[in-house]
Amino acid sequence: MRAGRPKISIFKIQNSVLGILVAGCVVTQSERNEQPSAVEITFLDVGQADAVLIRSPEGKTALIDAGRGGEIVARLRDHGVDTIDLAVASHAHADHIGGMEEVVRSFPVRYFLDNGLPHTTSTYLDLMRTLRDSETTYLRPEARSIALGSLRMRVLPPPHVNEQSQNHNSLGLVLEYGAFRAMLTGDSEVGELQHFLDMGVPDVTLLKAAHHGARDAVSPAWLAATKPELVVISCGRGNPYGHPDAWALRYYEAVAAEVYRTDLHGEITVRGLADGAYAVTTARRGD
Question: What is the CATH number of domain 8-282?
Answer without folding.
Answer: 3.60.15.10
